[in-house]
User: Which sequence fits this backbone?
């Protein structure tokens, strides 16, 4: 593993525009379960996954009922607002501060990259801290809405102050289109990067999983994108040779070692 960390360190140092893609695996060391790992929420509760596939249709059919159920239910991922970033999140902040990482595109809704201090973050599947108007796409902080009061007053769903459109949680549900701004920026980043560091994702959910494939196709005549995975297990990207190599293990251990190795090489 040490050799692969050295190789990744060298690749990052030589890159011109590196970005990171992250998934639930980077937050398991913060006590948040992933979805498809051995203790994942879908692994342990396949029925919840089937239900999640129906959620967006339910929202479209009856947003008031959807919100009432939402406010009554408990989150499958626990209380995300209490979770704290771990060493993996902080290592990505360090890489950004060193000028080696230009952007993080995350599937996670836990907002831990921002909490850790990453600046350029794209929340591909939204954020638990925000609400979003499904008509005009405006986002609002969750605390701007007194959702409980709206519920007791029978005034759900919340409405957008700008366009009166229906407001939903910002988290993107299965079957829901990725918000246009986020989809556009992510595509731009994937096309622009010459190194992609993919951390803690099974890479089976689309369209997110298209981003490494797009990056793989990028050729500017001189360079091809280098794609590195850091994950507990191989993924379809590893098996399909979309990634160049997999550093197998925990992001909370490997990412800090990567930062340390880069420092050592640069100090030489
Ligand atoms: P998954 O649960 O599918 O994949 C997490 C991956 O991280 C697995 O391959 C784990 O083996 C690995 N892993 C777990 N802990 C790790 C650690 N400490 N270090 C390294 N690897 C670790 O999660 P995602 O790929 O993020 O979407 O899932 C994608 C989407 O599926 C989610 O955004 C969510 C879910 O359904 C929606 O809800 C729309």
Assistant:
């Amino acid at each position: 593993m040490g050799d692969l960390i050295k190789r990744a360190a060298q690749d990052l140092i030589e890159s011109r525009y590196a970005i990171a893609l992250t998934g639930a695996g980077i937050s398991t060391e913060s006590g948040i379960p992933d979805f498809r790992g051995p203790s994942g929420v879908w692994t342990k509760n396949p029925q919840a996954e089937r239900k999640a596939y129906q959620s967006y249709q339910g929202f479209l059919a009856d947003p008031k009922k959807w919100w009432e159920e939402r406010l009554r239910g408990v989150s499958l991922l626990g209380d995300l607002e209490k979770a704290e970033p771990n060493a993996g999140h902080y290592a990505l902040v360090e890489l950004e501060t060193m000028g080696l990482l230009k952007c993080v595109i995350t599937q996670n809704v836990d907002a831990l990259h921002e909490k850790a201090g990453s600046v350029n973050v794209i929340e591909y599947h939204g954020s638990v801290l925000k609400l979003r108007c499904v008509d005009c796409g405006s986002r609002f902080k969750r605390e701007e809405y007194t959702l409980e009061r709206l519920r007791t007053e029978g005034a759900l769903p919340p409405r957008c102050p700008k366009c009166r459109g229906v407001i939903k949680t910002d988290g993107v549900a299965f079957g829901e289109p990725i918000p246009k701004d986020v989809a556009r920026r992510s595509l731009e980043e994937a096309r622009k990067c010459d190194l992609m560091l993919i951390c803690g994702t099974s890479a089976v959910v689309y369209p997110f999983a298209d981003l490494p494939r797009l990056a793989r196709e990028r050729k500017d005549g001189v360079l091809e994108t280098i794609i590195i995975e850091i994950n507990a297990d191989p993924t379809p990207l590893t098996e399909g040779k979309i990634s160049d190599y997999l550093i197998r293990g925990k992001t909370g251990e490997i990412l800090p070692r990567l930062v340390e190795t880069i420092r050592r090489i640069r100090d030489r």
About this structure: The two ends are 22 Å apart (CA to CA). Residues 35 and 41 are 5 Å apart (CA to CA). The longest helix spans residues 251-267. The chain has a mean pLDDT of 95.
